[in-house]
Design brief:
Layout (H helix, E strand, L loop, with lengths): L16 H19 L2 E5 L12 E3 L5 E3 L4 H4 L5 E3 L6 E3 L6 E5 L4 E6 L13 E2 L4 E8 L13 E7 L5 E3 L8 E4 L1 H12 L3 E2 L3 H9 L1 H4 L10 E8 L5 E7 L4 E3 L7 E3 L2 E2 L1
Antiparallel strand pairs: 1-6, 2-3, 4-5, 6-7, 7-9, 8-16, 9-10, 10-11, 12-17, 13-18, 14-15, 15-16
Length: 265
Amino acid sequence: MPALNGYGTLTEGNESTSAVDTAAETFVTEALSKVLKINNICDSEHLSDCGIPEKYNDAVGGNNSMPVTIAQLNPAFISATGNFTPNSYSALNTKAAAFETQNGESILLFYNPNCVASMGENGYHYSQPKICVNMIYDLNGSKGPNTVNKDIGFMTILYPTDSVVVAPIPWKQKFTGVSNTEAAGVCTQKTGADYRIPTKEELAALSANMYMIDVTGNAVSGTLYSSTKLVTSWGDISNWVMLPRIGEWRTPSAGALWDVLCVQR
């Protein structure tokens, strides 16, 4: 990401409709294609030519159209309002591009050319500005079952420098009413499988792709724990939490009970 950052950048005065529409395509064509073996690249009008299905099944059984713009992926990328200062976030509604790998995977890519680095925040702030790239992959292209957590998943890259890449695969349901001291162990106890609590960055990916997981958004609602620690304003060591519907990382309140959505190890 440090080497590729800047391709497709929308500078002030260059935020025309065409630039917004082609930012992701430019990133794939001028940057990724130089470092990855890519068979085919498709713009937002021809995604099916790269094996991207028009419809997909979410992780809990719903069916929906594949997103083409950032707003369709998650409208909170375009407009979100939280309860801190500044208490709103907005971004350009860039269109997706797609490409096929030599191994036959189809990748739908969303690019945020204005993404920013982590600044060591220790209070409420938005995850959306930190997300540089979000990719939805289909391991076998347009062939079935076109279902999230089977042949479809997602990968998210945060921060233009010291980048973090995550690809969380969530458990089928969340667990509610969990205390901070219980959060770390709840996944092993409840799932009986190889799952764990997500990191702060994995929560950002779950938030960005919440409607891919569940088209109603219910599976990724509430306030979710992460495994990433912070020192709270009252001096305790606690876990970052997130309100996924608006992409807001939060400092947890003392003694509060939140939810856990586990991810595979």
